[in-house]
Specification:
single chain, mainly alpha, 3 domains, 19 helices
Length: about 425
């Protein structure tokens, strides 16, 4: 009998699958720093990468003629995004709600692409490596800006924004607090990749990011991100028994290097701001956040069920809090707390949807194998602490975590598995 020739569409589909995954890898690599690089039409690199990989993914699906069935996580993500979009019918800020709806559509496409392409544990691990590598680049740029004297306030002015604190550092186009949490999220990933991945170069990049990442977080002056990163650092003792003797030695070297960088590289102004966290919590307003939160709770009492509309938080509290869009400092008019932002903008219904999504993710994380369980509990706790001072329900890093967890829970395990504990 003659061998049956391979199906051309299957071969094309496999080729498109590899190309699409490579594009998703680059997209995740771009996420920690890509907003600082304007591209064609004034849009950032990640936007064009997203369009390209979405096209490749759609072409692959049409060629193969099948798609993965969505997980329960995806239905909850769709429900949250759909409820946010539906708020256009009762929103107090129609234009912002429409913009937020387009953002959620892009985030859902990202979640679908990761679900379709990161079907194995090896591919999920590859996306963790992409994020850590991108975070290393972002950390390096932050340290470079510090050495060149380019403060976050100077960079914000170049983008037409106002930053009053002149002693903090970031990268162009990204707020210092946002950058701090972006880097903090890489900390649990670092230890997971160290234990799971092979290759000296990968491990070297991880140790470099651990050192550079904490240094960059200190340079941002983001107190919430530093606390979140410290929580993420709990991943180290949970995985220390999995590390080789050389990796433990490298961790000691990295710890000494971190102390040295903190003592000799991070300026005194950053340390002073960080050490003010205790007094801000007990006596201060957390940089006016408590004023914004009180105003948001007043707005919630008037719109408890449906909320004021997605993205309408700032306009709603404009008459209560002492901030104005006219000053060009619109960032101060957001909630600076993801959970409160969802509660006020999307009401009890939206808050319940977010709670159900997070609860299901925590439940699934607890049921995973030991190493993955440590990773995802650490990551989710890091995210929850960080977003308690940021408005991140519609940000790409948030939905990247949601998408990666869904892919990781349902990923196929190959024969060369990571050993696990019961």
């Amino acid at each position: 009998m003659t061998a049956r020739a391979p199906c051309p569409s299957l071969a094309i589909g496999e080729a498109l699958d590899r190309v699409a995954y490579a594009c998703v890898w680059v997209f995740v690599f771009d996420l920690p720093w890509g907003e600082s690089v304007p591209m064609m039409g004034g849009l950032v690199l990640g936007y064009w990468l997203g369009l390209f990989v979405a096209g490749i993914g759609a072409l692959r699906m049409m060629t193969v003629g099948s798609a993965r069935r969505p997980s329960p996580f995806h239905y909850l993500m769709l429900a949250l995004a759909g409820w946010s979009t539906l708020s256009i019918f009762w929103t107090l800020d129609w234009g912002t709600t429409v913009t937020r709806g387009r953002t959620y559509l892009q985030l859902l496409v990202m979640a679908w692409l990761i679900w379709e392409l990161a079907v194995t544990q090896a591919r999920v691990l590859g996306l963790f490596q992409a994020y850590v590598t991108g975070a290393l680049l972002s950390s390096g740029i932050t340290i470079y800006n510090f050495m060149m004297g380019h403060t976050a306030a100077q960079q914000a002015a170049a983008w037409g924004r106002i930053e009053w604190d002149t002693s903090r550092y970031s990268i162009s186009g990204i707020n210092a607090n946002d950058l701090g949490l972006i880097l903090a999220l890489s900390v649990p990933m670092i230890f997971y990749v160290l234990v799971s991945a092979k290759g000296r170069l990968v491990k070297l990049l991880c140790w470099a990011q651990l050192l550079a990442g904490f240094t960059a977080i200190l340079l941002t002056g983001s107190r919430g991100s530093l606390v979140a990163a410290a929580v993420g650092l709990a991943m180290f003792p949970l995985t220390v028994s999995w590390q080789s003797r050389s990796q433990r030695f490298a961790s000691a070297i990295a710890g000494v290097g971190l102390v040295a960088c903190g003592a000799y590289l991070v300026p005194q102004s950053s340390w002073l701001r960080i050490f003010q966290l205790g007094s801000e919590l007990s006596e201060g307003t957390l940089t006016h956040r408590t004023v914004l939160w009180a105003a948001g709770l007043d707005a919630f009492r008037n719109h408890p069920l449906l909320g004021v509309g997605s993205g309408a938080y700032g306009l709603t509290i404009l008459k209560v809090a002492d901030f104005s869009y006219k000053t060009g400092n619109a960032a101060n008019a957001v909630a600076h707390n993801t959970f409160l932002s969802v509660l006020v903008e999307l009401g009890v219904v939206g808050a319940l949807l977010l709670f159900m999504l997070l609860a299901s993710m925590l439940y699934s994380a607890i049921r995973m194998r030991y190493l993955e369980r440590c990773l995802w509990i650490s990551l989710l706790l890091t995210w929850m602490i960080g977003v308690s001072a940021l408005t991140w329900e519609y940000r790409k890093p948030t939905w990247l975590l949601f998408s990666l967890l869904a892919a990781h829970v349902y990923s196929r395990r190959e024969s060369e598995q990571i050993p696990h504990m019961s």
